[in-house]
């Protein structure tokens, strides 16, 4: 069973997208969950995280533009992205923060200038 991220696409700079991820309960329940991204030629980075209790952290590069949320009843985590920039172009993944499981396919976000 894999983590399944969806909602990516092509958007113009300044636009918005919302990503969704369904996680296996064994990974999701009680775990801090995060959204990661990997741009071409760069390392994967954590951009937003949320504990099961609702505490959040964000990378400086997305603070004020991205909002992470989760639905504990459905084992889902979301990432609302606004004021998108070309440098946000990447494949986005969700995963546990403390002990990441096998990475799913991710969802591609492309921001055109």
Structure, explained:
The protein is mainly beta and 113 residues long. Helix content is 4%, strand content 47%. The chain has 1 helix and 10 strands. A 6-stranded mixed β-sheet has the order 2-10-9-4-5-6, with no helix packed on it. Strands 1-3-8-7 form a 4-stranded antiparallel β-sheet, with no helix packed on it. It is globular.
Write the layout of secondary structure elements.
Layout: E1 4-6, E2 9-12, E3 17-22, H1 25-28, E4 33-38, E5 45-50, E6 56-58, E7 66-71, E8 76-81, E9 90-96, E10 107-112
Parallel strand pairs: 2-10
Antiparallel strand pairs: 1-3, 3-8, 4-5, 4-9, 5-6, 7-8, 9-10
Write down the Rg.
Answer: 13 Å
How many DSSP-defined strands?
Answer: 10
Strand content: over 45%
User: Structural class from helices and strands?
Assistant: mainly beta
The 3D shape can be described as: globular
Mean pLDDT: 96
Strand order of the largest sheet: 2-10-9-4-5-6
Q: Are there runs of 5+ residues with pLDDT below 50, and where?
A: none
Concise structural overview:
With 113 residues, this protein is mainly beta. It is built from 1 helix and 10 strands.
Relevant terms:
4% helix; 4-stranded antiparallel sheet; globular; 6-stranded mixed sheet; single chain; 113 residues; mainly beta
């Amino acid at each position: 069973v894999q983590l399944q991220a969806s909602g990516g696409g092509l958007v113009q700079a300044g636009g918005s997208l919302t990503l969704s991820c369904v996680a296996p309960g064994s990974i999701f329940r009680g775990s801090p969950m995060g959204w990661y991204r990997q741009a071409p030629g760069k390392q994967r980075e954590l951009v937003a995280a949320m504990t099961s209790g609702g505490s959040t952290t964000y990378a400086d590069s997305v603070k004020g533009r991205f909002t992470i949320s989760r639905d504990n009843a459905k084992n889902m985590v979301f990432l609302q992205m606004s004021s998108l920039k070309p440098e946000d172009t990447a494949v986005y993944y969700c995963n546990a923060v403390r002990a990441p499981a096998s990475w799913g396919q991710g969802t591609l976000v492309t921001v055109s200038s």
